[in-house]
Structure formats: C-alpha cells, structure tokens
Design a protein that fits this description.
single chain, two-stranded antiparallel sheet
C-alpha cells in the first residue's frame, strides 16, 4: 500500500514538473491549468515551484485583483507567478477546476485572489520590485531558506502558520500587496 502511494506522489510531481512550461507562456488557459495542477499537488508542488522563482522571463499574466484600482505599468516576471502559486497553496484557498473564466484578461476568478495588487514590494521604498533580477534572486533565496526550515512540517501546519501571518516573506525586506 505504501509503495502505491509513493508511486502516486511521484506521478503527481512529474505531472506538475511538466506543467512548469504552463507558467512560462502567456496563454491564460495554460496559466489557469498550472494553478489548478500545482494547487492540487499541495506541498509536493512547492519544491518544484521554488526552482522557478528566480526566473526573470517577462510574462503577460496579471495577478492583480479585478477589485484593485492600483495600476502596474509593467508586466511581471514568471518567478512572481511561481511565488504567487506557492502562496495560493499555503493559503489553502479553494481553486475551482473549471476554466469558465468571467474575466478574459485573467486566469484567476474573483474570489481566488490573495492580494489586491498581486506583486511583491520593497519595504524600504514601498515600490514594486519591477524587473530587478537581483531582487528576484534575493526573493528566491528567501523562499528557499523558508522551505529548508519548514519542509518537514505538514501542509496543515504550513497553512496554519500562513493564516497567522508567518509566511515565506515574513521578516524580509519584501512583502506581497
């Protein structure tokens, strides 16, 4: 029985690895499929996504809630998308499997957004990180360091911590908005 569960986890992780390509392109349905797949993968998806956070490729996706009046002038990096999916997994937010999107310019539904702006900001100047590769490498390291400390915790424990404000960027010079 344990062997079958182990095989199931390997298959699930392999499927999600293949889906890293889905967050590297600008197709809304592919992006949506990636969110659904990785969220279903739970804790097993986090480690895979962490390898993508340093990706500086500029993408067309938009993580900004339709309820936000903040306007980002620039597109975001794929690494931001990967970090956002990690946050979605940790939040425990229910992600609907359907692809019937109300907003054709977004791959998330209204109630699935975690943050109004959907961007990482610097505490020092309260500005979005923009396209800074250096800052993305720093953010990637922060997430990796967080994972090394927390990887042995259950997903339930990680979600409890996240809901209490203990998140990957907690204590760093960056924050989600």
């Amino acid at each position: 029985m344990c062997f079958l569960m182990f095989i199931k986890i390997i298959v699930m992780v392999q499927d999600c690895e293949c889906d890293l390509n889905l967050i590297r392109n600008d197709d809304l349905l592919d992006n949506r499929q990636a969110v659904v797949c990785f969220c279903k993968g739970g804790k097993h998806s986090i480690e895979i996504l962490l390898s993508e956070i340093s990706n500086p490729k500029i993408s067309e996706f938009d993580l900004q809630s339709p309820f936000s009046s903040y306007y980002l002038l620039e597109k975001q990096m794929t690494g931001i998308f990967a970090a956002y999916i990690v946050e979605l997994i940790l939040s425990g937010k229910k992600i609907d499997d359907s692809f019937d999107l109300k907003y054709p310019v977004s791959f998330l539904k209204e109630d699935e957004y975690l943050y109004l702006v959907g961007m990482i900001f610097c505490k020092k100047n309260h500005q979005p990180i923009g396209h800074s590769r250096k800052k993305m490498r720093e953010i990637s390291k922060i997430y990796l360091d967080w994972w090394l400390v927390n990887k042995d915790k259950s997903l339930i424990e990680l979600r409890e911590q996240w809901s209490k404000g203990f998140r990957p960027l907690t204590g760093s010079e960056y924050y989600w908005r």
